[in-house]
C-alpha cells in the first residue's frame, strides 16, 4: 500500500484507468514475486462457467430471439470482474442469477444504451469481426455469443483478442484456449499489457488486423475506458459497475450496455 500510494503522485489525472491498473499491478508483481497473482482465480472462474455452458446454449437456442439472448448473456457475464469487486465475488451465485434470469440482465430502461438493431445491421454486412475479450470466466459467455454469430452469419471471419501478459483477471491466450474460444474464432493477442486495449501500446501486426476488421466488438469496462474515443465501427458490450461509467454513459448500475462508439461524446 505504501509503494502504491507513493506511485499515485506520478499519475496524471488524464491517465486512462487501465494504464493506472497496469502500474499498480506491476508494483504488486515486483513485491510479491508472483507474475500472475490472479492465476488461480482465473482458472476457477473458467471452470465454473464452463460447467454451465450447455445451460447457456439452451437459453439461447430456446429463446425467441437467440442473438438477443446471447448478447444479453455476454453483457451479464461481464459481472465476473475481480478488479471491480476487490473484496471478491461469488461467481457461482452470479451465474445462478444469470441462468434464472433474475439479474437485471434483460431489462433496458434506456433503449439508447442498447443498440441491438444497429448491432445486427453491422453484423449482416461484416466480413471480418474482431471480438476484444475482457475477463476470464466471462469469456465462456463470449464463446456462446461468438457461436451464435457464427451460426447466424457463417460468412463472417471471427477473431478473439486477448491480453499479452497477466493483468488482473483479464483473459490471456491460454485462458481462451482452455475455454475453447479457438473452436469458433482465431485467437490472437493484442500485445497490450493493460486491462483495456490501449491502441498506442498494441503490436503493429495486431493493429493491422484491427484496422482491416469491418466491426469491432469491445467487451467490458476496461476496454470501454480505453476505446471510447477510438474511430471506426466499435460496439461496446458491458455491464455498468461503477459511478464513473454511470455518469459517462448515463445508465444505472448493473444495466446492460450495447452501444456503438461516438468519439465526439
Q: Find the CATH topology of the largest domain.
A: Rossmann fold
- Going by CATH, the architecture of the largest domain would be 3-Layer(aba) Sandwich
Helix % is 40-55%
H/E element string?
HHHHHHHEHEHEHEHEHE
Bin the strand percentage. 5-15%
How far the N terminus sits from the C terminus, by CA atoms, comes to 35 Å
**What is the strand tally?**
6
Question: Topology, please?
Answer:
Elements: H1 2-8, H2 17-32, H3 39-50, H4 53-61, H5 66-76, H6 91-99, H7 116-125, E1 128-132, H8 139-152, E2 157-162, H9 173-178, E3 186-189, H10 204-212, E4 215-219, H11 221-227, E5 234-239, H12 243-249, E6 256-260
Helix pairs in contact: 4-5, 4-8, 5-8
Question: What does this molecule look like?
Answer:
By secondary structure, the chain is of the alpha/beta class. The chain has two domains: 2-32; 39-260, 3-Layer(aba) Sandwich (Rossmann fold), CATH 3.40.50.10880. The chain is 44% helix and 12% strand. The chain contains twelve helices and six strands. The chain has helices at residues 2-8, 17-32, 39-50, 53-61, 66-76, 91-99, 116-125, 139-152, 173-178, 204-212, 221-227, 243-249, and strands at 128-132, 157-162, 186-189, 215-219, 234-239, 256-260. A six-stranded mixed beta sheet has the order 3-2-1-4-5-6, with helices on both faces. β2 (157-162), α9 (173-178) and β3 form a beta-alpha-beta unit. The chain is globular, with a radius of gyration of 17 Å. The protein starts with a helix and ends in a 5-residue tail after the last strand. 42% of the residues are buried. Residues 101-109 have low confidence and may be disordered.
Amino acid at each position: 500500500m505504501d509503494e502504491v500510494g507513493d506511485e499515485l503522485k506520478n499519475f496524471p489525472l488524464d491517465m486512462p484507468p487501465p494504464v493506472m491498473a497496469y502500474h499498480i499491478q506491476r508494483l504488486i508483481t515486483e513485491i510479491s514475486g508472483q507474475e500472475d497473482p490472479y492465476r488461480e482465480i482465473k482458472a476457477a472462474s473458467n471452470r465454473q462457467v464452463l460447467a454451465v455452458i450447455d445451460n447457456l446454449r439452451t437459453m439461447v437456442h430456446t429463446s425467441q430471439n437467440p442473438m438477443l439472448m446471447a448478447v444479453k448473456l455476454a453483457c451479464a457475464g461481464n459481472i465476473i470482474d475481480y478488479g471491480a469487486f476487490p473484496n471478491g465475488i461469488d461467481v457461482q451465485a452470479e451465474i445462478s442469477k444469470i441462468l434464472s434470469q433474475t439479474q437485471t440482465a434483460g431489462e433496458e430502461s434506456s433503449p439508447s444504451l442498447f443498440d441491438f438493431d444497429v448491432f445486427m445491421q453491422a453484423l449482416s454486412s461484416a466480413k471480418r469481426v474482431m471480438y476484444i475479450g475482457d475477463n476470464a470466466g466471462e469469456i465462456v459467455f463470449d464463446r456462446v455469443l461468438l457461436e451464435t454469430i457464427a451460426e447466424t452469419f457463417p460468412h463472417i471471419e471471427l477473431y478473439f483478442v486477448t491480453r499479452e501478459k497477466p493483468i488482473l483477471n483479464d483473459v490471456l491466450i491460454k485462458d481462451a484456449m482452455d475455454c475453447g474460444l479457438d473452436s469458433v474464432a482465431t485467437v490472437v493477442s493484442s500485445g497490450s499489457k493493460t486491462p483495456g486495449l490501449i491502441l498506442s501500446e498494441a503490436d503493429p501486426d495486431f493493429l493491422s488486423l484491427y484496422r482491416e476488421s469491418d466491426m469491432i466488438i469491445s467487451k467490458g469496462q476496461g476496454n470501454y475506458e480505453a476505446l471510447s474515443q477510438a474511430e471506426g465501427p466499435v460496439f461496446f458490450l458491458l455491464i455498468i459497475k461503477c459511478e464513473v461509467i454511470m455518469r459517462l454513459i448515463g445508465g444505472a448500475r448493473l444495466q446492460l450496455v450495447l452501444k456503438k462508439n461516438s468519439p465526439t461524446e
